[in-house]
């Protein structure tokens, strides 16, 4: 999946990946896709909850060799 | 989401140790990203978290804290020995650094910049000789009624 911006939160732990995600999503346009890389396993449920609560769209969430990759469409 | 009233979280921070300073700030910094209005009322020892002269040097004591991890088996009573609090604090700071967590002053700045209401308890200030100018910029001074007025409309209320 292609993204318009990538933010690297690897090595950071709760709540910093969410703080990083929130900062980065403010820097993209409505409808654009943000890609977030993280290693904190809590980011899987946290990003799901965060996108649901904020009205943004979690398009994809996957794990590759201990790195979680999220694609989030800015819809709010 | 349009005309809906914002969700709100009210926290009382009453502890001034390095470990217990984190939970209110972790929750507050997360809540503001979820468009939740947050107010933290700093009272008793919790006031140190917003005291410029103290917030950079909060400590944690091993004495009476049997849960504190130790590199070697360690009878808790030895926590009374001189230097044990400094050692415990150093260890905890090392643990915090390992997970790349911000320091308390950094976390506090994130919260204030994000619009968290910071309220310092007036009787605590009087009792401990803390002046308004000792507090981090942006902290207001108020009492229980003001906090309750904020908390009565809150969806989450926590005492830390």
Textual characterization of the structure:
The complex is a heterodimer of chains A (76) and B (160). Chain A contains two helices and four strands; from the N terminus they run βαβαββ. Chain A has a four-stranded mixed β-sheet with strand order 1-2-4-3, covered by helices on one side. Helix content of chain A is 29%, strand content 34%. Chain A is globular. Chain A has one domain: 2-Layer Sandwich (Translation Initiation Factor IF3). With 76 residues, chain A is of the alpha+beta class. Chain B has 160 residues and is an alpha/beta fold. Chain B has a domain of 109 residues: 3-Layer(aba) Sandwich (Hypothetical Protein Ychn, Chain: A). Chain B is 35% helix and 16% strand. Chain B has five helices and five strands, in the order βαβααβαβαβ. In chain B, α4 links the parallel β3 and β4. The longest helix of chain B is centred in the first third of the chain and has 16 residues. Chain B starts with 7 loop residues before the first strand and ends with a strand.
Number of domains of chain A: 1
- Could you state the oligomeric state of the chains shown? heterodimer
Instruction: Please trace the helix and strand order of chain B, writing H or E for each element.
Output: EHEHHEHEHE
Q: Write out the CATH superfamily name of chain A.
A: TusA-like domain
Q: Would you list the SSEs of chain A in sequence order as H and E?
A: EHEHEE
**Outline type of chain B:** globular
Question: Which of globular, elongated, flat, extended, rod-shaped describes the shape of chain A?
Answer: globular
Q: How many strands appear in the DSSP assignment of chain B?
A: 5
Number of helices of chain A: 2
Roughly how many Å is the radius of gyration of chain B? Answer: 17 Å
Percent range for helical residues of chain A? 25-40%
Q: What percentage of amino acids of chain B are in beta strands?
A: 15-25%
Q: In this structure, how is the largest beta sheet of chain B organized? A: 5 strands, parallel
Largest interface: A-B, 15 and 12 residues
Mean pLDDT of chain B: 94
* Architecture per CATH nomenclature, i.e. the level-2 architecture of the domain at 8-60 and 104-159 in chain B: 3-Layer(aba) Sandwich
Q: What's the architecture of chain A in CATH terms? A: 2-Layer Sandwich
What composes the largest sheet of chain A?
Answer: 4 strands, mixed
Task: Give me the count of strands of chain A.
Answer: 4
Spatial strand arrangement across the major sheet of chain A: 1-2-4-3
CATH topology of chain A: Translation Initiation Factor IF3
